[in-house]
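Folding Problem: From Residues to Backbone Shape
Fields: amino acid sequence; protein backbone structure tokens
RECORD BEGINS BELOW THIS LINE
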Amino acid sequence: MIHYDLICDKGHAFDGWFRNSAAYDEQSGRGLVACSHCGSAKVEKQLMAPGIPVKSNRKSGQKMVSAPADPRLAELMTMMRKIRRHVEENAEYVGDRFAEEARKIHYEESDPRGIYGQTTPDEAKALIEEGIAVHPLPRLPEDGN
């Protein structure tokens, strides 16, 4: 993911996240990038300082993520990382068996416990329709595609 500080022809500053710079160029070229304040599709990238980490501050193999320019977005990202960390530290990872395990717990065929893993959108919908409470973990920029 790539974050851009954007500005419209009326001077409104806002930001946007894109899969990569080509995705921004393609969407902007088709008029799909619009000002969040006035709706103008005449939008340009603003000058931005890159988020360059200091090498001495990171552990070997640590993923690098630049900080968002908007402090509200930075706070939201921090909260989402805390949620993910809490789930990962306090629940059992069941991988692609998530739907199966959630049903076993719900129908008391397995011991109650917190779990997390992967499932398809259709399977998640089916779980919800069965009355099984499931919630997606937030996707973060460092998760990649």
Q: What stands out?
A: The chain has a mean pLDDT of 81. Residues 71-90 form the longest helix (20 residues). The beta strands are 2-8, 13-18, 43-45, 92-95, 115-117. The CA atoms of residues 2 and 23 lie 10 Å apart.
